[in-house]
Amino acid sequence: MRTYLQAFDLWEVVNSDVEPEPLRANPTVAQMKQYFEEKSKKYKAISYIQNCVSDVIFTRIMACETPKQAWYKLKEEFQGTERIRQQQLLNLRRDFENLKMKEEETVKKYSDRIMAVVNSIRLIGEQFDEARIVEKVFSTLPERYEAKISSLEDSRDLVIISLTELINALYAQEQRRASRIEEHQKGAFQAKTKGQMLVQARCCVSTLQEEGHVERACKQNGRPGQNQAQYKKAEAQVAEDSSDHEEWVFAVSCSAGQKKGTKG
User: Fold this and answer.
1) What is the spatial distance between Cα 105 and Cα 111, in angstroms, rounded to a whole number?
2) Helix and strand tally (H, E) in the chain?
3) What 3-state DSSP class applies to 241?
4) Which of 146, 204, 233, 251 is most deeply buried (CB count within 10 A of its CB)?
5) What is the pLDDT of residues 212-236, one digit of tens each?
6) In terms of Cα–Cα distance, which of 171, 144, 148 is closest to 158?
7) What are the residue boundaries of the structural domains of the chain, listed by start?
8) What is the pTM of this model?
9) Which residues of the chain are modeled with pLDDT < 70?
């Protein structure tokens, strides 16, 4: 609201509530124009304030005759008395000092939590410089950021580093760490899947052996030794190339099913 009024050169009217000096006798056209412009600023300011608030808030300031009265009425409604403001400020300072980053929290979410408290302090009217926020972030980061902090200490002057630069540097580290974890998990999943497919393939072959299908096929061909060697070779191929496991097992199962049908 203050910025909005300043944009129209009306903040001084709200802050001082001073009436313009009355016109002297026989004023010029320029003097009359300036006088009425200055006098109308009061009505413009109170009009802007009334138009910027909700209907519920408007009922609280509609009896105010000057912009200064309306402004202080709003200030009293939303900020309370000076004693209440000081108590709020004390509580917010305590909240800021107690802030710590959680283990599962990202640096951007943590910075948002910090800025929520800082902005509340600033809205009350307390000055809060960025260097203090940067110091707070550095002092409350978990151990996993120690390497990055040391790197920043070696390459930058931490006294003048901006909050945005610090958060972006820490966020970049988080992204690299997340990528490494994802690649590791993906590799572990692929290895586990490959092992499961190999076990399934061997179990299927063992089942066929127990039912006599492979041995029967060897006896029918009259060359058991050669077929057994081919079978061992096929089993080794299953272990080597996991991409062919499903097709190989499917082929063996189908062959077994056909042999069972032929026998019947």
Assistant:
1) 10
2) 13, 0
3) coil
4) 204
5) 554 444 444 445 455 555 555 555 5
6) 148
7) 2-79, 82-161, 195-263
8) 0.50
9) 155, 157-158, 177-264
